[in-house]
Fold:
Amino acid sequence: MQEKNFAFFPGCVLSQAAKESKMSLEAIAPILGLKLHEIKGWSCCGASQAQDVDPIATLVANARNIALSEAMNMPMLTTCSTCMLTLTRAKDSLDKGAKNRINEFLAKGNMKYQGSNEITSLLWVLYENLDTLKSKVIKPLSNLNVALFYGCHSIRPEKAYNKKESSTNPKSFEAVVSALGANIVPFEKRLDCCGFHASYPAEKSVKKMSSQIVGNADENGADCLVTPCPLCQMQLDIYQERYQDAMKSKIRKPIIHLSQLVGLALGLGNKELGLDLNIIDATKLI
Structure:
């Protein structure tokens, strides 16, 4: 793959709570020929919830984010699945008729949404460039057993992503991790919801859901669980002690970001990948 430039949309969570995801992404990018140019002045996408409070304001905010990337003349890349879904849905609404109305708001800031930009994710960029990824692996993960957890917003709803990938039988994540040489274990919960967005209104149910995901990974012999979504990673990692205690489970399992797993196969260390920042100890994976 030739060096490719991206207008990088980190989203809120990579800026703070999951900064290890941003660290690892920025560590692997130059090795893979990805040049990330963080969008100056980006704002929160609304996390797929703000539109329920004020749909117009949320659409304006995301039209602005996309317009900022268009001005950079680069495709827009994010590694947050929820940001990916929210931005993609906004683009769809704008392209199907809302553009003129929303541009009236953007004009007040001397901005304009054109509809010229592609929005993509780290997972899909890696999937579309498997040969390059394989060629950069210097430490195949043949001794690592991993459970792959897609998370809802990486693949659902399928129509939001123009059926880019099946939501019931996706293959991108498996293909990417196979390229790294890791052993993918059977994992019945791979397409389940982690419960992140329901943590407050349905706390008890979410604790049970999260515990079952970690338990299923352990039952199938996984050394760790990997996800392309930083919100899923947060839910399953940061709160793991809490929900496992509530479910009276002694199982503790490292939950790592896709970018961290890629980094391990590229020969990068714990500090470079931020593995020492994960809550459940992931440093022993190396």
In short: The radius of gyration is 19 Å. DSSP finds 13 helices and eight strands in the chain. The chain has a mean pLDDT of 95.
